[in-house]
Structures are given as C-alpha cells and as structure tokens.
Amino acid sequence: MLTCKPFERFSTFKCLVGAIAFLIHIARSFNGTNPNSECKGWHKCNLPRTQDEMTQAKHIILQETQKATFGKELSALKAGKSISKQSTLLKLSPVLDNGLISVGGRLKHSEFENFEKTPVVLAKDSHVSLLLTRHYHEQIKHQGRHLTEGAIRAAGLWILGGKRLVNSVIHKCIVCRKLRGKQEEQRMADLPPERLKTCPPFSYVGLDVFGPWTVTTRRTRGGQAQSKRWAIMFTCMSSRAVHIEVIESLDTSSCVNALRRFFALRGPAEKLLSDRGTNFIGASKELGMDKTLEQYLKDQGCSWEFNPPHASHMGGSWERMIGIAWRILDSMLLQSKVQLTHDVLCTLMAEVTAIIYARPLLPVSSDPDNPFILSPSMLLTQKTCLSPPPGDFLDKDLYAKQWRQVQALANQFWTRWRREYLPTLQQRQKWTVSRRNLQVGDLVLLKDKQAPRNSWPMARVTATFPGKDNHIRKIEVKVNDQGGVKTFMRPVTEVILLLPKDNS
What we know:
The protein is an alpha+beta fold. The protein is built from 15 helices and 14 strands. The longest helix has 27 residues, at about 395-420.
C-alpha cells in the first residue's frame, strides 16, 4: 500500500486522484479484472478513468491519510475498543464506516444522506487536507471562508481545525489576492529634515500645479474668446506659507517662468520637491540646459527632488495646501459670480494666499495672556493684526526700535513653532505598523486606475529603494506589455503582493 509521503509530490487533488486511479487501472489490467479487454499490462492508456476507479482512488487516499495521522485511533476502532481520552477525536464519537474513521455524532436518525451524517475525519496538518481545501475553494470560484467550509462539509469531509486551514489557503491564494488583495503599505516614515528646520521661509519648497479655470481673454464680434489658466503653488515646508503663480499653460516654458518669478520675489530655494509631472520634468531639464540658470542654481546650492509617480501621499504637505486653496477659491467664485479674466484670477489668487497666510497653525488659545495667533503671516508680513499699544512715540524711537520689533516677532514665531507646533507632528495618524519589505524578485499586481481590476498587469520587482529607516516605500517593477518589457517606478501603495520571492 502507498504511504502518505508520495502524496506530497502532487500539487492538486485532481492530479492525485487521477494518478491513483491510473495505478488501479494498471493493477486490474494485470489481474484480468479490467472491463476493457484491450488494456493489458503496463501501457499508456488514453481512455478516461471510470467512475469506479475514481471512487476507489479517493477511498484509498483517505484511508492512507488516516493511517498516517490517526493510526492509534484506527487500530482501537478496528479492535472494537474505545479511543484514548486524550485523542482529538473524542468529542466526535468516531465510528468506522467502510474502513474510514467518520463522525458518529448525534444525527444518526436524521434524514440527511449518509455522507452528511457521518463525514470522514481528516487532520488539518495533512497534505491531503490542504489539497482538498484548495480543490473545493477553486470549485466555488474563490469565494470566502464560509462558502469554502460549506463545500468541504457538503462533500462529506470533516477537517479538524478546518477554519485555520481554510484561512491559510485563502490568504496564500494568488487568485484571491488578485481579486481582493489589499495594496501594500509601510510604516509611516519620519518627517524629513526640511520640515523640522528653523530656516528662512521658502528655503525648502514643495510645488504642484492645480486648476484649470476658464478665463475671458478678449472680446470679439462673435462673442468672447476664452482660454484656460492654471496655477503653481509653492509651499514652504517649515513655516507652511504658500506662494501662488498663475500660468497660461502646462508646458515647460510656463513652469520655468513661474520658477523665475518665484525666485525673484522669495529668493532662491535650497531644495525643490514635487511629483513627476511632465512639466516639472521638462522644467528641470530646461533649467539644466540653460547655462545661466544652471550656474545660478549651482551657486545657490538649489536641487530638485522628485517623488515616485502615483505617490501623491508623499507630497501630502503641499497637497493639503492645494485642498485649502480650492475650497477658498470655490467659496469666492460662488459668492461673487464674476466673469473670470486673467487679472481677476491673479487678484483672487493673491487673496487666497492672504487667507492661507492668516490661518492658525495651532488651535486658537483662549488664554488672555497669549493673544497672538501662530500663523505664517506672523513671520512673513511681520503683522499680528493687533492694534499698536497706546502711547506717544517719537520718530527716533520708531527707527531705533523697528528692527527689534521685527526681530521679536520672528523670534516669537520660531519659539512657538518649536515649542507648540512641532510636537503636534509627533504622532503617526495611520500606517503605524511595520510591514514586510518588498524584495527583488517578488511577483506583484500593478494597480492601473484606467483599467478594471481583472485587467491589472502582473509585474516583477527589479529594484528597491530603502529609506533612512531601512523600510522600502519605493520600488522599480518590470512589466511585459504587448511583447515588450517596460520598467516603472512606483510607491509600494500602488502594488499588491501576489507571490513573495521566498515562495516562488
């Protein structure tokens, strides 16, 4: 008789049953009990297996599996003795049914079929139990645990600890991961140094484009000529101040001109951060091609750093500012209902900037001894929106003390910024648990917002980029697309792990 060790060579229950059924067919060919007279001895038989051969094969598989896992209980039941009180089968009142250990239970007089009243008992650690669970999970088209358990029980099987086994099979099932798998995530990274530095405003800047708006450019005999406008928002990473520039198009030239205006008004930045918009990529190349600007940026020590594509959450510090600007502008346009022109849009953007300047970085205190609101305007405009103190001051005092007043306001901003604002950034609001790092060779499903989930392509991780804490949040993947190979840079939140490298 076969032992259970050879069963582990098979990856599906159907193949295992087919192999045992073929051996039964060959054995019958030798002893002359095969109903087909043409099949004699060892031969390659292309005929389908009979139902009797398949039924006998399943019986042998279950019998050998029980011998390997419940040998003591099987011997006791065959001898007519009671099983040990330490046995895991004790609560099932096991009985022998056609040579197999089955559940005795209390449903003997029910109207159920015999295989439903006395299901065959299997251990969850058996390889055959794993194959059977996969088999019935595929039969119900990869549905959840309850449907899989129901299919197993309806087939006349009782797997001890079956819930854990079914959960494990579903968790490792690649088809289920394709259909319902969650996108990867990683523990939230520490704040970058540029958000924690006490430095001049707009030293470290995040920028992004938002819009468009339709504006009236000129009047014609046939009506009004209209065009679109966009805006670039520059966000100071430390003081949370913003600067908005209106642009006429999304091409590289408009982006470069907006950058030049920003540098002229706010001074050169040490680092620019943005997503991988085509206009930003072109602008960075354009700045590199222009020898004058290249030398200017080199002299000022300015660099441009890009986030991975489809990683808007990595630019959350300036994406939130764009959301605030949208809400303010929508309210303005709803109330005024003016016809937008380029000048009107620029004026509205300036007012939006002023409102964002005045927003409190912290909850407004009700303490009368602390009337100052910590806001970007406190640093940039040096105005606290409070009336001057009463008293008579001479012009010489004004000129002598003005620099001290300005310095005091700046010192007060940075002191409160360090003492009150920075501690509010300490806590991680989500992504608090460290996850397994994706590795080179992992098989993943690449998210595509333009296609249904069943059409998302599979990809192989070809490179990983660890952060300062050694967590992987950015990867490079390779996809086969229409006979060609394409490489993409993506955040881990845009992929679903299908098969780890260790299990491939």
